[in-house]
Amino acid sequence: GLARIEDAGIEVTHGVCEAEAQGLNRGFFLTILEKRPLVALKLAMTLDGRIASRTGSSRWITGAAARRHGHLLRARHDAILVGRGTVVADDPDLRCRLPGLEDRSPVRVVLSRGAPIPEGARILEHLDLAPVLVMTPESVAGGEPQEDGWLHPRAVLEALALRGVTRLLVEGGATTAAQFLRAGLVDRLYLYRAPALIGGDGLAAVAPLGVVDVACDMLRFRQVATRALGSDRLEVYEPAGNA
User: Fold this and answer.
1) pTM to 2 decimal places
2) What structural domains and CATH numbers belong to the chain?
3) Phi-psi region of 92 (alpha: psi -120 to 50; beta: other; left: phi over 0)
């Protein structure tokens, strides 16, 4: 097509907004090249990296502006994923609830080792606007469970790509976040950081990653954006290897 245009004597300018176009279509490219969607991990935490108190209290760590931005993030992704433990502990809705964008709510994905979603859970509401997909080792073709009984994140992503998902937002909890980080399958990290402290007895945002040697094992990221959201701060990171 390009050759025919040039042969017709039409001047063609190449590479216009190439970086922006690649960024907008990165999820699509990943489904073609790696058979998986782009993965964004979202965490709302205190300055010391806690997402809840020792009793599980977490509403609300961040303010209204940060929470609104989090809903906008949901609208920009095809699917949103949490572990079943988050459904039980927090009873989240997981839809985009910004006025006018309700119909942009992503498909809601729940990872489970086999146990069903509790009856009456909020995630089972509004299925016409945002369907729910429960993924277990038995429900995913070739999805052999790991030693801990969970599906490997790679199997989850490949199954979602086959369903047309190009952009996935992982919202927790700590165990699910750690699984995707350990597998090296987080392409973008959104940290909503509140100017507050909970302390060491609070729930960490990420479960153990198995880091033994800081020089060799620590996962490193580079900051690509930051902005204020009320009294909170949004920090966006990508793996340092992508620099």
Assistant:
1) 0.89
2) 35-242 (3.40.430.10)
3) beta
